[in-house]
Amino acid sequence: MSKKNEVTTRALSGFMELLPQEQIAFNNMLDIIRNTYETFGFVPIDTPILERFGTLLAKAGGETEKQIYQFTKGKSELAMRFDLTVPLSRYVVEHYGDLTFPFRRYAIGKVFRGERAQSGRFREFYQCDIDVIGNEVLDLRFDAEIPSVIYTIFREFGFDAFTIRVNNRKIFNGLFEGLNIDEFRVDIMRSIDKLEKIGRNGVEKELNKLGIVSEKIIRIFDFLNIKGNSQEILNALKQLDITNEKFDEGIEELSKVVDMMRQFDIPEKNFAIDLTIARGLDYYTGTVYETQLDEYPEIGSVCSGGRYDDLASTYTDRKLPGVGISIGLTRLFDQLRSRDLINIDFVTKTKVLVVPMTEDIKQSVSIATVLRKNNISTEISFVEGKLKKRLTYANKKKIPFVIFIGEDEIEKKVYMLKDFVNGTQEILSREDLLQKLKRAL
Amino acid sequence: MSKKNEVTTRALSGFMELLPQEQIAFNNMLDIIRNTYETFGFVPIDTPILERFGTLLAKAGGETEKQIYQFTKGKSELAMRFDLTVPLSRYVVEHYGDLTFPFRRYAIGKVFRGERAQSGRFREFYQCDIDVIGNEVLDLRFDAEIPSVIYTIFREFGFDAFTIRVNNRKIFNGLFEGLNIDEFRVDIMRSIDKLEKIGRNGVEKELNKLGIVSEKIIRIFDFLNIKGNSQEILNALKQLDITNEKFDEGIEELSKVVDMMRQFDIPEKNFAIDLTIARGLDYYTGTVYETQLDEYPEIGSVCSGGRYDDLASTYTDRKLPGVGISIGLTRLFDQLRSRDLINIDFVTKTKVLVVPMTEDIKQSVSIATVLRKNNISTEISFVEGKLKKRLTYANKKKIPFVIFIGEDEIEKKVYMLKDFVNGTQEILSREDLLQKLKRAL
User: Fold this and answer.
1) How far is CA B179 from the centre of its chain?
2) Is A108 within 8 Å of A128 (Cβ atoms)?
3) Among A214, B56, B65, B335, which is most buried by a count of CB atoms within 10 Å?
């Protein structure tokens, strides 16, 4: 298309922009998430996209801080939110007196991270979060309820083969504490992350260099080598003979959460204990989750979260423990689309195109209104020109039904219905038309 | 609440932040808008909140430009969108080849304007837009369809007394052209806007100073004094005896649009010709709309829009005429709330709280799952403590039904249902429980 003034009309790179038919599919996924959150009794909140830089920064730092879109307007130092959790913590502290605890909230909105643009990474993306925030205490059973929300959503998405991986941060932390090597935790984890690349020998050499004795290295590998189903993993953990309260607590919690997940009717095939997940994040303090699509492990986790002891420690001394998850829908949608896993069923939600063949549009408007009241999305064709041109519109937009209303139809108060799916055409009374369309749609 | 580090936890001023019960009411209004747009066959698009500054600026200027939140990140000059129309024009040009025309799109999202903060003005607010974009041409009947969308939405909101005011820009422009005073248009309109303040005499003096002869001033006042119902106004306009093609065209279009609005079944009391509206905006070129709540005229227009000849003239030479409207929901909600016109019906959408009285939660989870599948929003109480404390939660959140499941209930596979609305309590089988709740909710 010819362009004047050489103004760029492309959206910025790293910012997803969809065609309408893709947007409809995207919104359908968003609706599934929102509806599931609501049927589980989560209430919506919608915090501003812009916050004071100081407020957001209070919790950020490191890599995140570099990614923040920040600027000054007048005297205000502003920043665009980079997640929905920091705004949640600010919100809970600000509105504490008006909230009922446990506070079950969902939030769906765009967040912004000025990362280096690369395939599959977005600078603007939707997060869809739920969190349950307790006042001082929060029962462990909420940790088991959260995966049942994940399960419901991914089933509604149409997936069968997915695994909700659970772990408990206390196990890993307790292991290091129990072996008296807590001070090397970050270095050890960095080494372990290279396991696939440099092999057990390579990792052992690195741990040796840190000054960790062989006996402890063996214990670490005993831990890393634990495999099996949930019960086998829990048994093996107990047999590791680590003397540390946190370690025991972690096993106890994980064991209870897994047991309750069964009571929550999550099929065995859709969850697993995975001792390796979320080891790098210091935010979480207990249960952690990741969710994997079994047939597409390369996508990575499509829904992650966990338990934290203290939501808002930067803003308040009050203890607000929580547990929650986030679905990064923009990235998930992009990954599914690139694998042709998104059904572009509809170019539009319009089911009926009413084509008035006369100047008098009263009957056309009237039937359109009735159909809309019956929640049947309906358009009236106001395009000038030959019938063929007007039908091209219906075909391009894949509108399944067209109703023609000409002089004959107006005189006899009937409707000519063309059914593009079955290729039929018939003349119907108003009542028959409505019944037929309601049945068909 | 005690605050550490003196970090501000208040949202920025000019940024609306709602409590959950208000958010539910807000979202209900958003859903009405979205659902209405969809039943009228508009498809969704969702453009980025951040755009290149140069792209947004191409269409902005003046006051708007000063309000834009703009900043530099790396090498990019970025800006936050200040409306949904400029992104739409960019979108249509960029995706021209992939769209079907007339392109009927809706967009609902936040826009940003760094205005001086004042009561009732927001720096971040939702716009809810529809537009129909034609390729080269766009039938006038779309101008009449748009008010029927407005009508449907405000009826769904629960309003009865509202007026969709229509006018046509060509009438005012044609009048000035016909009187050969087009060059003074901006000054004349500025004077006329002061009519209530300085009276007819004051305005006449100002117009005199501009060098406009008395005979023309009389004609302007003849125009401004036109009153009556739609037909009377149209007749009076024709009798003004202005010789100008644009003027005649404006009357012709306005007359047709009003006639078709009747065919669209918009009651006479809900629309009116108003020759004074939208005179200041140079963006619109034909039909213009404003919508007023009759009992609250001080709120001003709650839904405005109009017809423009050329959506994307800054980006393309192709002619893309359009017609559309925008609802500024944040401001509307704020105005209604301050007048106590928002029903805070629900603190939560949760209808049922299931209270397990034993360690075994299987039956509780099972009935919760069934209820959720029937779209009944359900929570399970995992709060430790006495029954009274757990019921306080239900009362605070105004959850109408509570199901107790203790040892007895598990043994007999029954459910004790407490109905807080009717104050009853009964023991029911699973099937009876489900039927009763489905009937009640």
Assistant:
1) 37
2) yes
3) B56
Residue B428 is which amino acid?
Answer: L
Angle between helices A169-178 and A185-192 (to 10 degrees): 120
Best mutation target, A110, A141, A381, to test chain B (most B CBs within 10 A): A141
- Classify residue B100 by its DSSP letter: P
- The Cα–Cα gap between B177 and B219 comes to 13
Question: Which residues from B are below 8 Å from A313, CB to CB?
Answer: 4
Q: What is the pLDDT of residues B91-123, one digit of tens each?
A: 999 999 999 999 999 999 999 999 776 777 899
Domains, chain A, ordered by start? 20-179+242-338 (3.30.930.10), 352-440 (3.40.50.800)
Answer whether B138's CB lies under 8 Å from B132's CB.
yes
Averaged pLDDT of chain A: 91
The model's pLDDT over A269-312, given as tens digits with 9 standing for 90+, comes to 999 999 887 555 567 899 999 999 999 999 999 999 999 998 88
Residue in B153, B310, B315 to test binding to A, most A beta-carbons within 10 Å: B315
Collect all residues of chain A within an 8 Å Cβ-Cβ radius of residue B357: none
Beta bridge partners of A292: A163
- Please, which residues bridge with residue B304 across strands? B326
The question of ipTM being above 0.85 is answered as: yes
- pTM equals 0.94
Q: How far apart are CA B394 and CA B354, in angstroms?
A: 10
CB contact under 8 A, B39 and A90: no
Angle at A290 between CA A287 and CA A292, to 5 degrees: 150
Asked if the Cβ–Cβ distance from B26 to A12 is below 8 Å, we say no
Query: Of B78, B66, B73, B52, whose CA–CA distance to B114 is shortest?
Result: B66
Dihedral sign computed on CA atoms, order B360, B363, B369, B372: negative
Compute the distance between CA of residue B139 and CA of residue A361 in angstroms, rounded to an integer.
13
Residue A95: CA count within 13 A, CB half-sphere: 22
Are B55 and A8 within 8 A, CB to CB? Answer: yes
Which residue of chain A comes nearest to B135, CA vs CA? A383
Query: Residue B294 in contact with residue B183, Cβ under 8 Å?
Result: no
CA A247, distance to chain mean position in Å, is 31
